[in-house]
Specification:
84% helix, rod-shaped, mainly alpha
Length: 197
Amino acid sequence: MGLNQWMRVFDTVANFAQLTGRFKREGAAEPGAPPPTALGQIEARLAGVVVAALKEAFDRDRARMDLERAHLDAERQRAEEALRAELRRQASERALGQIRLIAIMAIGVWMLSAALAVWMPGMRAGGARGLLAGGWVFVLGALGCAFAGWQRISAWGAADAGPGRAVVDGPHLAELLAPWMLLAALALCGASLLVAL
């Protein structure tokens, strides 16, 4: 039985006890009626005790159910916070992996272009040297954006994700510019290699 059904049973028993007590009082007030017997008084007291016991039992059940409901709500909130933290950690790891890849590629482009500049004599000519210098500027810009993005994503991943905060934070300017600067560096270093040939 649910709590509502128990409450209806309790109300019915309480109303019945009040009704029997009222009839006994009215019957005793009538002239010529016999006075209330000891058995009737015992029944009235017993009905009152039963009603009080039922009320106490229902109050305990209600308090226990409220406590269980509060415990379940607290468990649900903890589970939601754990899920939010896990999603935030995964998003920051993905973003850091992308930034790390861009930084490694930028260092690789810089090292390869430096080796080609030393190895190929045509890379020291005016046009190839200018294109190579422009490529290196973009490589350094891509590295700077990658480091700035790394710092921001690390701080964002370590911050507390409260209930009102987003799980996934969008990329900022540094993370958006880093791949394009790397692509421009690749294009300029490739062009300097073609001019040197």
